[in-house]
Every structure is written in structure tokens, then in C-alpha cells.
């Protein structure tokens, strides 16, 4: 049985992502490492503090020690730490938003990036730009920061959180060919936002797990070829 270790900086995505794994990779053992202090420290600092980066790398190492075949980094705010850690860890690290960013960059010219935190918005925009450059494409990114939505959710006001995201999506839709949801936890609103804006909406959880599946299949082929 293959093992995937998912590293989380918060609680919100663990259960929805478990359901995606049960659908797409039912025979894979999924192990979760959750440290919900991480995103709090990132939000407080407005960047990734060195302590957060060190803890994340340690969690990736823990995943390797647990026997993971692949590590899934589930937080877009810290994806650039995963890039650097890939040089230190002996197994593949998949970023949950990598496939989403690649698809957006390959398919659309004007892309609105929707997020509730600047610390998630900015790295997601950089990732899309990086994927576009790798594909030899030029893209225009539209800032879709839903100010106040993160605080509303943390304050126990999920309806206000959703309203602010919807209003932001409607505001930026006219400037974009598609909308990208920078946070995996927003995926539950994908259909609602698409219906409200009339634009394609991309979210990361399913595409991220599909990429994990592709990596596991590649590792299996390489293992068979080596025998």
C-alpha cells in the first residue's frame, strides 16, 4: 500500500481532502500532519517567518520517516517553502495548487486570483506567473483579495465569509477569463461562484490529488522498470 503524508497549516481542509482521496486514491494510506499554529504565525508576520519554514521542513522529514511515498503540501501560503525543501527531502513533495496554477496559466490569459489573505494571494500569483513563463505564455493577473473574509470565518461568521468571497468574485469577473481560488478551503464554493460570475472557476484540492496520483503511478512504473 502506498502512503501519502499531507501537511496542513490549519484544520479546515483535512476532512474535504480526505473525501477526495477516498474517491481518487481509495487504496492509498493517507496520514495527516496538522499544525494550525503555522498559518496563524504567517498571518501575524505577513510573510513566512523562519520558524515556520523550519517546522514545515521538519514535518516533511517526519513524513519521510513515516514511510511516505509522496508528501502533499496543502497550504498555498507556504508553497515556496515546499519548493526549497524538495532539495532536502528524498521523496517527491506535491504542492496542492501546482496543477491548478499550471492549468490556469495554460488555458487563460486574464486570471483573477481569489483569496482571503495577502499571504496566500501573493504566492499563488507568483506560482501562476512561474507556470506561465515555463509554458512560454503571457498572463494578466487580477487581484481578488476578499478583505475581511478570513477574519469573518475565524470569528464564527461563515455566512459573511462566503458573502465577501462572492462579492469579490463578482467584482473581478469582468476583468478575467477565469477565476482561481487560492485557498483549497474555498473549493466548496466553486460551483456557486461559477454560476454567479459565468466564468470558469478553478480550485486546488481535486487537481492536487490528481497530481499525487500521477506521481504515484510514475513511481510505480519506475519501480517496475528497475526490477
UniProtKB/TrEMBL annotation:
Family: Belongs to the HyuE racemase family.
Protein name listed in UniProt: Asp/Glu/hydantoin racemase
GO MF term list: amino-acid racemase activity
Taxonomic superkingdom: Bacteria
Amino acid at each position: 500500500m502506498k502512503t501519502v503524508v499531507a501537511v496542513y497549516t490549519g484544520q479546515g481542509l483535512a476532512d474535504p481532502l480526505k473525501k477526495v482521496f477516498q474517491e481518487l486514491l481509495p487504496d492509498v494510506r493517507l496520514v495527516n500532519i496538522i499544525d494550525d499554529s503555522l498559518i496563524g504565525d504567517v498571518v501575524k508576520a505577513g510573510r513566512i517567518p523562519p520558524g515556520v519554514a523550519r517546522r514545515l521542513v521538519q514535518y516533511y522529514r517526519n513524513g519521510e520517516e513515516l514511510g511516505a511515498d509522496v508528501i502533499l503540501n496543502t497550504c498555498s501560503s507556504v508553497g515556496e517553502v515546499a519548493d526549497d525543501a524538495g532539495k532536502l527531502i528524498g521523496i517527491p513533495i506535491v504542492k496542492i495548487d501546482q496543477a491548478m496554477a499550471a492549468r490556469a496559466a495554460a488555458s487563460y490569459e486574464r486570471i483573477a486570483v481569489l483569496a482571503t489573505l495577502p499571504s496566500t494571494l501573493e504566492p499563488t500569483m507568483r506560482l501562476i506567473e512561474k507556470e506561465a513563463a515555463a509554458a512560454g505564455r503571457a498572463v494578466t493577473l487580477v487581484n481578488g483579495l476578499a478583505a475581511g473574509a478570513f477574519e469573518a470565518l475565524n470569528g464564527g461568521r461563515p455566512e459573511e465569509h462566503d458573502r465577501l468571497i462572492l462579492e469579490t468574485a463578482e467584482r473581478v469577473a469582468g476583468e478575467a477569463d477565469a477565476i482561481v481560488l487560492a485557498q483549497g478551503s474555498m473549493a466548496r464554493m466553486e460551483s456557486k461562484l461559477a454560476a454567479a460570475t459565468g466564468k470558469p472557476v478553478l480550485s486546488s484540492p481535486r487537481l492536487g490529488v490528481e497530481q499525487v496520483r500521477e506521481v504515484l503511478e510514475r513511481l510505480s512504473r519506475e519501480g517496475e522498470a528497475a526490477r
